[in-house]
Amino acid sequence: MAADRPDPESRGSGHAIPPGVAIVMGVSGSGKTTIGKQLARRMGGIFADADSFHPPANIEKMKAGHPLTDADRWPWLDAMAEQITRWLAEGQPAVLACSALKRVYRDRLVAGRPQVAFLYLSGSEAVIATRLANRRGHFMPPALLRSQFETLEPPGPDERVVTVDIRHPPRRIIDIATRRFGLPPQQPKPPAG
Ligand SMILES: Nc1ncnc2c1ncn2[C@@H]1O[C@H](COP(=O)(O)OP(=O)(O)OP(=O)(O)O)[C@@H](O)[C@H]1O
Ligand SMILES: O=C(O)[C@H](O)[C@@H](O)[C@H](O)[C@H](O)CO
User: Fold this and answer.
1) Using CA atoms, how far apart are residues 22 and 36, in angstroms rounded to an integer?
2) Distance from the CA of 180 to the center of ligand 2, in angstroms?
3) Which fold has domain 21-180?
4) Which residue ranges does UniProt annotate as crossing the membrane (predicted)?
């Protein structure tokens, strides 16, 4: 396959059980917010961004150009795990946009809950660096992208994950996720009036 062409179809284990909570994961700038909001609409659920779970000190640290450590991330991951538990208890479908870079972070978020699945937005550093260079109004310095890739442990086939190539346009990514997650077909809109 040509290196500059997206995969024709997603990779990864995939599964046909619609997730109650989908976690859109990947490095900074991979498209988690963009895709996560659209996936939440498609699932009829709510959208939440992991950035809103960070203690202010974490945001300040990243703004200042320093990557987070495991110690910085554990309380943040625990806060999200608690929120996931609440959503599942309430039967509230939800999409969480969260980098979830390491396997141990993902294990903490899933913690044996089969209703949680990941959508991994996979892309090269070059593609994402170009997108970050063009993004405006976000606190995350593009210079931290290198450290994001150094930390990233791409999900393995034993994880509940659908992997999508981010060179696809968002609409195609949502189509692939819909199919691979086994979401029910979208109801046609009733005629106006
Ligand atoms: N599939 C896509 N094709 C083209 N551009 C995209 C795609 N997905 C996202 N983008 C663009 O890439 C940039 C990064 O996307 P986005 O902000 O959603 O990433 P993110 O993973 O949420 O980043 P962060 O973790 O830093 O918050 C945005 O400018 C967005 O418009
Ligand atoms: O784990 C991390 O290093 C952080 O979550 C970062 O990924 C940022 O919060 C996010 O990418 C910026 O929005």
Assistant:
1) 9
2) 26
3) Rossmann fold (3.40.50)
4) none
